[in-house]
Design goal:
- The structure is a single chain.
- The protein is an alpha+beta fold.
- It has two domains: 31 residues; 80 residues, Beta Barrel (OB fold (Dihydrolipoamide Acetyltransferase, E2P)).
- The protein is 26% helix and 32% strand.
- It contains two helices and six strands, in the order H-E-E-E-E-E-E-H.
- The protein has a five-stranded mixed beta barrel.
- Strand 3 and strand 4 form a beta hairpin.
- The N and C termini lie far apart (76 Å).
Length: 136
């Protein structure tokens, strides 16, 4: 084998090994962050309760309790398990019972304390401007 071909082949193999190692480290560090949210049924799989996580589900009917002017407690469900969430702050406009939400926060004494709430709309949502143009 010519020296030039041997050097080129060694360089390609070396780059492949370095890229593979880099990809392994990236994917292993993102392992828990790839999931957008955990449903209430998967909460017991999380071992470190002090890390910030996202949970999601439907707001259970008749579970919203107003604790103070800007603090509420409600329950989310995935129709298998439920999870109690406390949230302090301004509620999203789409927040209501039987609506999908994603909450980001941590566990404190068995209750999930949310720092952010994201209300999800259904797949039939259309902005009001689009509805007005379609009705004409």
């Amino acid at each position: 084998m010519k020296k030039r071909t041997h050097t080129r082949l060694a360089s390609i193999v070396g780059l492949f090994i370095i890229a593979s190692i880099g990809l392994y480290f990236i994917l292993s560090n993102l392992e828990d962050n790839i999931v957008f949210f955990y449903p209430p049924s998967d909460i017991e799989k999380i071992t470190n309760a002090k890390t910030k996580i996202r949970v999601g589900g439907l707001v259970k009917e008749n579970s919203v309790v107003i604790l103070s002017a800007n603090k509420i407690r409600f329950t989310i469900t995935d129709y298998k398990n439920t999870l109690i969430i406390e949230y302090t702050g301004i509620l999203p406009a789409l927040f209501r019972e039987k609506q999908g939400i994603v909450a980001e926060g941590t566990f404190v004494n068995g209750v999930f304390e949310a720092k952010n709430l994201l209300a999800k709309h259904d797949e039939n949502y259309m902005p009001p401007e689009v509805v007005k143009t379609l009705v004409k």
